[in-house]
Inverse folding.
């Protein structure tokens, strides 16, 4: 099989002739065969492409999507809580934090050094985080950076170290109404107070975006249809006024300090519609650092705690007695000089009195006088009126954790009850219940439903929901009776009775003192020399705008413990300030025998 | 014939139209076809070069600097085009040189290629990249250019074997006189290249074997040579353990997709996520760091992801067309030398393409074989351009097709 015709001269000069070459079929045939095989290989390659797609396409596509895409949540901004005039009590801001992706950091030592230097943490801590488990691709190194620190981290431009924004709750008014507002856990959920109660309104709805990432986990484009914007939370507008609240808190704090008391509660309410202007729980806490305080401080004791009210309960019974006409205002009642036996029971007055008009029984807060009124009313009527004033049932305030207090069912009342209840024993009432009942005396006999949240509004200020009742509150007393109790009895308490310390120069105050003993926790009986010193009052008497209750728990009895001494001045101060703040025109009261406080406008 | 000083009585270098024996202009359609196909592939390569160059971090140098990969690729593709056109204008028979002369281009080409392939192995001379010492520095260092001798080996071996077969035609039948020297040359080339570049060595071995198979060496001799060839293959595998690992990884792609099978699996993901019509040109996601060697060895996977199986099929079709042209040229080649050169050139390009597509479609184990003209790579593109030019050069001088079977010939 000669490929070329050899020349005759020499085998070395093996010159191939160009034309016409004899057909050497082998090269052509073998070559063509090999090349044909190659074409077959290309056909197979195409088949392989189609096979991969047909056989594994969907599965591989899913894996590819999992590899490329990730869903990034876009947190919704939590709604704010604002006071009646739009001051933010609780709001949400973003603060930068710094995180690391240990897997992609090249020089971990240096990265840790830079971060530690900027955030001021020990190098070892940061290094431990950075050199930790590489499969944790998001390790938070530090939270709560300042803008300047964040800028330095950004400028350092370390691959694998980045910044993230984290929402957190701010309370510009710090401890203002803390127990009422509550607080938010670090995960962004409301845990107590209004934050918890209105969680579904405040929280909003998180959005998300689906991004395509490169192998270095950098997001570089949005995946189609993979975006849902977050819906920010709605805002609460309260009836609380931060200025009144703040002032009340300071007044309470001063009194607690002055009398070395254990705690105190104050409620400021509009008697006409039940709008609560302030709720003070002292001692309070800082909702931003709630972990630093005992959980007992989180409680809103104005609605959650009930105790025996003591003498501030007397006006309600007096109103009942006048309603039922069992007594006249000027009827003289024998107060037995401070000691009265009624069957097996011995009753004492703090100050002995002889004959007192019914007015003065209340003005001078005689237990013996009230006990006799109780006997005239009888258990059935007494129970009916106490229940009508809202004791023993929840006020319906829009707050969680409200207790109904304790009013024993009628069939469990005995003769002791008849004389105990008129002086505020054998009953447990919350401060808010007392304020609400008192508001009925102030507003002409209507039992309002207290409220704290006025409306829910969106960011544009549109009202989404308004908590306004169209119906007038139910009447529980004739207007004349309420006016009589207010004008003939309770104003006299302030003018010449136990509540003189609450008197104001510009406004006529009406109120009632109370000094109740603190019960023992573990057995029947009372703690010695431990009192709730209370005063409940409203002003101005002609057209009451505000009612205030201050209840100071366990003042140091050697300094003072009577409600008229400890709580009345605080009530006077809060009333004076609040009325001035609300621009209530002054209407000087009748001259009185007590010392008069000047209101500073 | 004897009076002619050269073994082939042809012009030295001509740009004049080649004329057929009767003086009429020759049929250059085969030549034109090869050029068109290669230009098409180079164009696809440049486009894919720009596509795969997309990255999230801005390039350290300017977008149009010499150091941006697609710019270089464009330049080298242009260089390959020039090399191809010049070569196709040259008469391939000049590579045989004068009979008895000292300047035998096919021999010198091989000697230079072998020398460079040896030099690259010398520590300090060869440059190492990605753990393989395959490059020689070239030109001013500032340009950062380098040269890959294994790429030069492809045309050198094809030309040498073709010339060898033509020059020693009758002796090829003898084992020691014909087959063994050729086999030793192939073995030398494969061995030198294979130390650092297993894939190219395998390609050279296949091409060399196919040429011997077609040129008259006894097939029993070739079969006998297969035994030491396999032993050498085993040695090359043993030399770099990762090669075996890759071979095994190919078998367990699904199980070991984070480890040895990573390349192959990512390649399949690219193909599958492209579907039939692809994500659209430039829209590959896999190229952003998931698919290794997206610019070079796995550019076909990116192409499938962006242009779909249909786009991939078009590229396969172009290579098929090139092989088809090669078949026609082989059948119509005016002489045995041309026939063997055309066969070697077309086969080298075709096999390389088939291996690359096989690797990308996880039909073959992963090895460093690029897709001719499409993958980025300077030396590779230019020398493949030279090979395509040789093919086209033969295609310019074709006569009537040779009958394939003896009975027809007689």
């Amino acid at each position: 099989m000669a490929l070329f015709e050899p020349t005759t001269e020499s085998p070395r000069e093996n010159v191939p002739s160009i034309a016409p070459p004899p057909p050497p079929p082998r090269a052509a045939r073998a070559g063509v065969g090999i090349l044909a095989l190659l074409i077959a290989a290309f056909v197979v390659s195409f088949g392989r492409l189609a096979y991969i797609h047909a056989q594994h396409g969907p599965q591989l596509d899913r894996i590819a999507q999992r590899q490329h895409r990730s869903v990034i949540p876009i947190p919704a901004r939590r709604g704010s809580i604002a006071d009646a005039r739009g001051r933010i009590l609780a709001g949400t801001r973003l603060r930068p934090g710094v995180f690391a992706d240990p897997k992609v950091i090249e020089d971990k030592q240096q990265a840790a050094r830079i971060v530690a230097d900027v955030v001021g943490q020990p190098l070892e801590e940061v290094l431990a985080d950075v050199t930790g488990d590489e499969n944790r691709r998001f390790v938070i190194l530090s939270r709560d950076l300042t803008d300047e620190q964040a800028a330095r981290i950004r400028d350092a431009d370390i691959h694998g170290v980045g910044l993230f924004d984290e929402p957190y709750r701010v309370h510009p008014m710090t401890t203002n109404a803390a127990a009422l507002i509550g607080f938010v856990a670090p995960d962004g959920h409301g845990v107590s107070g209004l934050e918890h109660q209105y969680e579904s309104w405040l929280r909003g709805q998180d959005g998300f975006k689906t991004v395509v990432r490169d192998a270095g986990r950098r997001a570089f484009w949005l995946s189609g249809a993979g975006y849902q914007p977050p819906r920010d939370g709605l805002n609460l507008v309260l009836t609380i006024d931060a200025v009144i609240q703040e002032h009340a808190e300071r007044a309470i704090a001063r009194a607690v300090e002055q009398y070395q008391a254990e705690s105190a509660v104050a409620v400021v309410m509009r008697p006409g519609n039940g709008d609560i202007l302030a709720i003070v729980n002292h001692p309070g806490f800082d909702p931003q650092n709630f972990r630093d305080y005992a959980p007992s401080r989180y409680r809103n004791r104005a609605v959650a705690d009930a105790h025996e009210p003591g003498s501030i309960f007397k006006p309600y019974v007096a109103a009942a007695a006048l309603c039922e006409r069992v007594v006249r205002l000027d009827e003289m009642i024998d107060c037995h000089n401070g000691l009265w036996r009624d069957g097996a029971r011995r009753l004492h007055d703090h100050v002995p009195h002889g004959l007192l008009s019914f007015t003065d029984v209340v003005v001078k807060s005689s237990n013996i006088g009230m006990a006799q009124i109780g006997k005239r009313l009888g258990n059935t009527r007494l129970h009916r009126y106490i229940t009508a004033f809202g004791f023993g049932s929840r006020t319906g305030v829009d707050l969680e954790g409200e207790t109904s207090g304790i009013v024993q069912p009628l069939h469990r009342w005995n003769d002791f009850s008849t004389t105990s209840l008129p002086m505020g024993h054998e009953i447990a009432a919350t401060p808010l219940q007392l304020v609400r009942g008192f508001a009925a005396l102030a507003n002409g006999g209507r039992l309002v439903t207290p409220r704290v949240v006025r409306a829910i509004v969106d960011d544009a200020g549109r009202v989404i929901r308004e908590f306004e009742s169209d119906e007038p509150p139910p009447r529980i007393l004739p207007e004349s009776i309420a006016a009589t109790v207010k004008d003939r009895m309770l104003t006299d308490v302030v003018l010449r009775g136990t509540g003189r310390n609450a008197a104001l120069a510009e406004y006529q105050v009406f109120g009632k003192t109370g000094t109740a003993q603190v019960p023992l926790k573990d057995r029947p009986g009372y703690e010695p020399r431990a009192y709730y010193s209370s005063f409940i009052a409203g002003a101005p008497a002609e057209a009451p705008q505000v009612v205030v209750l201050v209840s100071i728990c366990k003042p140091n009895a050697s300094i003072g413990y009577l409600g008229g001494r400890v709580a009345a001045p605080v009530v006077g101060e809060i009333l004076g300030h609040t009325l001035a703040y609300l621009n209530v025109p002054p209407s000087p009261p009748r001259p009185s025998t007590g010392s008069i406080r000047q209101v500073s406008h | 014939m004897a009076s002619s000083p050269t073994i082939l009585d042809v012009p030295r270098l001509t740009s004049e139209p080649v004329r057929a024996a009767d003086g009429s202009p020759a049929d250059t359609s085969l030549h034109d076809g090869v050029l068109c196909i290669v230009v098409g592939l180079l164009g696809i390569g440049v486009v894919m070069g720009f596509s795969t160059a997309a990255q999230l971090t801005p390039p350290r140098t300017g977008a149009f600097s010499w150091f941006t990969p697609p710019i270089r690729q464009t330049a080298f593709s242009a260089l390959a085009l020039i090399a191809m056109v010049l070569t196709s204008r040259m008469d391939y028979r000049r590579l045989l040189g004068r009979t008895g002369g000292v300047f035998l281009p096919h021999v010198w080409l091989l000697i230079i290629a072998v020398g460079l392939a040896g030099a690259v192995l010398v520590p300090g001379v060869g440059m190492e990249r990605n753990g393989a010492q395959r490059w020689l520095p070239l030109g001013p260092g500032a340009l950062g250019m380098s040269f890959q001798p294994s790429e030069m080996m492809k045309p050198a071996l094809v030309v040498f074997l073709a010339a060898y077969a033509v020059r020693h035609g009758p002796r090829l039948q003898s084992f020691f006189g014909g087959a063994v020297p050729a086999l030793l040359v192939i073995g030398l080339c494969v061995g030198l290249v294979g130390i650092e570049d297993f894939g190219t060595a395998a390609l050279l071995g296949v091409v060399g074997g196919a040429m011997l198979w077609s040129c008259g060496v006894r097939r029993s001799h070739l079969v006998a040579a297969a035994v030491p060839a396999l032993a050498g293959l085993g040695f090359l595998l043993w030399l770099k353990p990762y090669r075996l690992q890759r071979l095994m990884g190919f078998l367990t792609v699904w199980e070991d997709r984070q480890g040895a099978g990573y390349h192959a699996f990512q390649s399949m993901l690219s193909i599958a996520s492209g579907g039939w019509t692809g994500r659209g040109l430039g829209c590959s996601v896999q190229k952003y760091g998931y698919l290794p060697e997206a610019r070079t060895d796995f550019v076909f996977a990116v192409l499938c992801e962006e242009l779909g199986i249909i786009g991939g099929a078009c590229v396969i079709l172009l290579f098929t067309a090139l092989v088809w042209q090669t078949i026609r040229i082989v059948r119509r080649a005016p002489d045995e030398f041309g026939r063997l050169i055309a066969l070697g050139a077309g086969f080298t390009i075709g096999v390389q393409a088939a291996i690359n597509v096989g690797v990308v479609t996880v039909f073959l184990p992963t090895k460093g074989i690029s897709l001719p003209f499409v993958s980025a790579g300077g030396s590779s593109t230019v020398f493949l351009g030279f090979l395509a030019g040789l093919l086209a050069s033969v295609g310019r001088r074709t006569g009537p097709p040779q009958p394939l079977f003896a009975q027809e010939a007689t």
In short: Residues 242-581 of chain A form a domain with the Beta-lactamase fold (CATH 3.40.710.10). Chain A touches chain B through 59 residues (CB under 8 Å). Chain A has 17 helices and 21 strands. The CA atoms of residues 100 and 161 of chain A lie 4 Å apart.
